[in-house]
Amino acid sequence: MMTQPKLVLYHANWSLCSQMVRVALYEKGLEFDHIPMKLCDQYEEAENLDKDYLKNINPTGVVPVLKINDEIVRDSAYIIERLDDIEGKNQINLWPKEAQAKEELRQWVYDTTITEGVPLGKTLGTAIAIFSLGLVEILVKELSLKAIWKIIRRHPRRERKMVFISTYFFSIKNKVGPMGYKALVDSLVELENNLDDEGYLFGDFNHADINLMCCFYRMVDLRLDSILEMSELPKINSYWERLKNRPSFKKGILDFNDHEESLKKAFPDDFNPHLEILKSKIKEKA
Ligand SMILES: N[C@@H](CCC(=O)N[C@@H](CS)C(=O)NCC(=O)O)C(=O)O
Asked: Global pTM?
C-alpha cells in the first residue's frame, strides 16, 4: 500500500457534517489527526469564529475542514469525494466509476446533507437541520451575552447569525419545525420506494448511505427515530439496522457522543412536539 497523505480533521462532536466525514474516514480505514472545535452555538470559546480559523482555515466559519498534507479542503460532500481517491486500509469505494451512476448518487448526496445554497427545510439534510433547532436553541440560550455579541460581530454567515440571535432572544424551534415537514416526509417515502430488502441504497455501501446514517442518527438524538420503525416504512427499518451494524457507525458517531445531558434537557420525557404530526403525514403519503 502507498503511504497515505497526512490528514488533519477540524470537526465538532455533534455536527452532522463532521459525523459524515468521520464515518467516511473510518469506512476507508484512513489514519487521521483531529482538532475538535468548540462551536459558537454551544461554547463561549466559539473557536469557529476565531480570527485565525476564519483567516487561515475556513472563512465561512463552519466545520468540517480537512487538511490533506498542506491543502485545505472544505465542505463535507466534497471532502468525502476527495477522501475516496485516497487508498486506506479498507478496500472500499464510496463513489462509483461510471458517469451515470455518479450523477444519480450526486443528487442523493446533495439532498441528504447541509448543501450550500439550499434553503433550510427544502431537502432531507436541511430539514434535519431545522429539527436540530430543538437542541440548538437550548444550547444557545445558555450562552452569555458576551458570546452572543461575538456571534453578532464575527459570524460570517448572515442567515446563521440570524438563527442564533433569534434563538437566544426568542423561542423559534416549535414555530420553524413545520418548515421541515414536507421535505422529511417526502424524502423518507421516496427512500422507502428506492430501497431493496437487502444491501444499501445503490446496492453497495456508498456516500449517500453515510449521509443517511448520520441523518437517521440525528433523528434518534431528536427523539424522532420511531418514525424509522413505522410499519409503513419496512425497508427503511431494516436498512437502518444494517447501517447501525457498520463499525463506522460506532467509531464515527457514537464514540463522539457528548450531548446526552443537553438532549435530555431539550426533550423532557423524550417528547418531540413534531413527532406525531410527522407520523400522520407519512401514513397519508406512504
Ligand atoms: N455545507 C457545509 C455545511 C457545514 C456546516 O453547516 N457545519 C455546521 C455544523 S454541521 C457548523 O459548522 N456550524 C457552526 C456555525 O454555523 O456557526 C458542509 O457540508 O461541510
From this structure: 0.98
